[in-house]
Design brief:
The chain is α/β, with parallel strands linked by helices. It has helices at residues 10-15, 19-48, 52-96, 100-103, 108-151, 160-199, 201-208, 212-246, 249-260, 265-279, 285-306, 364-371, 394-400, 415-420, 428-437, 453-466, 483-500, 511-515; strands at residues 326-331, 344-348, 353-358, 381-384, 387-388, 401-404, 471-475, 503-507, 519-523, 529-531.
């Protein structure tokens, strides 16, 4: 926990503004317990000798206890909600600046768990921690003092069941639960995978005419799940039930009566009330420990995520109304620092289309991500219009550079809505012209789900003709197109680059197409050959 909430951690930074409110909430929660104890003290005095003063005091203290409890809960949850909001913004801001190579680790369920489940777990831990501290530390310490004062040290024997159960919750149950926890996660993962496979049965297994594999996997996973639940009930839940039974009032009553059956009524009442005031809250100990355990695990995952290195970004600005030369100096197009690739020294010319070719794995796609500012540079320098890319602000990079990755998909909506993501202020006529340049003749109202792979690729290419970015980076933009359509698209791109002073960099495996580009950059593991400037 020291690393998770150290002064330099992102979690501590997000939590710091909420600490004063959480401190007040803790004091109010402690005050709730003190008021409840004061009410019990008044009841004990009432037993010793009736007086309306003690009755009124008990009622007043109980009312104050309820008011303080509500106030503490509101303050704690409000402070935690602000913390959760800051943490969600920090996670989202960190997420968008992670390089794709790191972002690939956080997909699907893992990302959902991080953004939703883990933040919610941390919410429960922090929101309930002040009241848990008051319940299990502050109030018991005061109560023990009152118990000794009113009934003598021998009355502490009534706390033995609670002590035994507390030790059981703190030592035995966590060890049993830890053994079962990993198996439970694996089983649930298998069930989720089997359900996903089965849900894809219609489109996938229709091709092969066989669904027995998915059904068999699902049945096997569910059977394993049931067996694991039975094992957990027999080991963990049964043990918890035994511990809980020790905390019931009957155990405390038995001990108190055994040691104090000859005591005066007020002393016996004090021993009963104050011992129960300590033992009864311990019934929530397991619940509180669950909050703490899940919150700590969530904090660990969130801390690990927030410590992932981001792509560096500066605050420099750049105007879009001038042609932009893109210059590489000693750039290594690889994420590995020990790559044998010779550093690149090259200048992509404005108004030209440059084809980047090379063997698979040489770093072509990585080079595009480096040029887009999406990956950190291991070595070298990239400058756009004379400004270092890592010194430019994120908004400036996004305005100046557009990256169209390989196999980019579309949103499940119309073609017009997809194009509006790039040019929201463009007219329908502008969209139709862009589609024509991309060699696609479709109605703007056509739904993306009805398009083929090649048509999806051409809708994305239409975005190139709508984008205000001065630098366009394309990764295999014609891989799903026939040779004639690919030729026409490249012709349109060359015209677009020349007419609008765009710098277009295109990664392609099509050597015939690369020969038609204005310039060509060939990446090799041992040497670089550049044609053009």
């Amino acid at each position: 926990m020291q690393r998770l909430f150290s002064p330099t951690s992102k979690l501590a930074f997000a939590l710091r503004p909420a600490i004063p409110a959480l401190t007040i909430g803790t004091l109010l929660a402690a005050g709730t317990g003190v008021m409840a104890l004061s009410a019990l003290w008044c009841v004990i005095q009432l037993i010793a000798g009736y007086h309306s003063f003690w009755l009124a005091g008990a009622l007043i203290f109980w009312i104050l206890s309820a008011l303080l409890s509500g106030s503490a809960s509101w303050i704690n949850h409000n402070a935690e909600a602000q913390f959760s909001g800051r943490l969600k913004r920090d996670v989202a801001a960190h997420l968008v600046r992670l390089p794709p190579s790191t972002l690939a680790k956080y997909k699907g369920e893992k990302l959902k768990r991080l953004m939703v489940d883990d933040i919610a777990s941390l919410h429960h831990m922090i929101a309930h921690l002040p009241s848990e501290l008051a319940t299990f530390l502050i109030v018991p310490a005061i109560t023990i003092g009152l118990l000794i004062l009113s009934a003598g040290p021998v009355s502490l024997l009534a706390l033995i069941p609670g002590l035994v159960a507390a030790l059981f919750y703190l030592v035995v149950v966590p060890r049993l639960a830890a053994k079962q926890g990993e198996a439970r996660v694996n089983v649930m993962g298998n069930i989720t995978a089997a359900v996903d496979d089965y849900s894809r049965g219609a489109p996938v297994f229709r091709i092969y005419g066989d669904q027995t594999g998915a059904i068999a996997d699902y049945q096997k996973a569910t059977k394993h799940f049931i067996e694991e639940i039975i094992e957990r009930v027999s080991k963990v839940s049964t043990s918890v039930a035994v511990a809980t039974s020790l905390l019931q009032a009957v155990c405390t009553f038995a001990i108190v009566y055994a040691i104090g059956y000859e005591w005066p009524p007020e002393k016996l009442a004090a021993a009963l009330f104050f011992s129960l005031a300590i033992v009864t809250p311990a019934l929530k100990l397991g619940h509180g420990l669950d909050y703490l355990a899940t919150g700590r695990a969530a904090a660990q995952r969130l801390t690990d995520f927030l410590e992932q290195s981001r792509v560096p970004v500066g605050s420099g600005n750049i105007e879009l109304n001038t042609p932009m030369q893109l210059t590489l100096t000693d750039v290594v197009p690889s994420l590995s620092t020990n790559s044998k690739t010779v550093p690149i020294n090259y200048q992509f010319r404005s108004g030209k289309v440059t084809a980047v070719t090379g063997l698979s794995g040489v770093g072509k796609s990585t080079l595009l991500r480096l040029l887009a500012g999406m990956e950190p540079l291991n070595a070298g320098d990239i400058r756009l219009a004379g400004i270092a890319l890592n010194e430019m602000g994120e908004a400036s990079i996004n305005r100046a550079i557009m990256l169209l990755p390989q196999s980019a998909g579309l949103l499940a909506t119309s073609i017009a809505d997809n194009l509006a993501l790039t040019a929201p202020d463009a007219t329908d006529e502008d969209y139709l012209v862009a589609l024509h340049c991309a060699q696609l003749d479709k109605f703007l109202t056509t739904h993306a789900s009805t398009l083929s792979g090649g048509e999806i690729q051409r809708v994305n290419l239409a975005r190139v003709f709508l984008s205000p970015a001065r630098v366009i980076l394309l990764d295999e933009p014609t891989s799903a197109l026939d040779s004639e359509t690919a030729f026409n698209v490249l012709t349109a791109l060359s015209h677009h680059a020349k007419t609008n002073h765009k710098t277009i960099v295109m990664v392609t495996h099509d050597l015939t197409l690369s020969e038609l580009a204005d310039d060509k950059l060939t990446l090799k593991h041992h040497h670089i050959e550049g044609e053009g400037q």
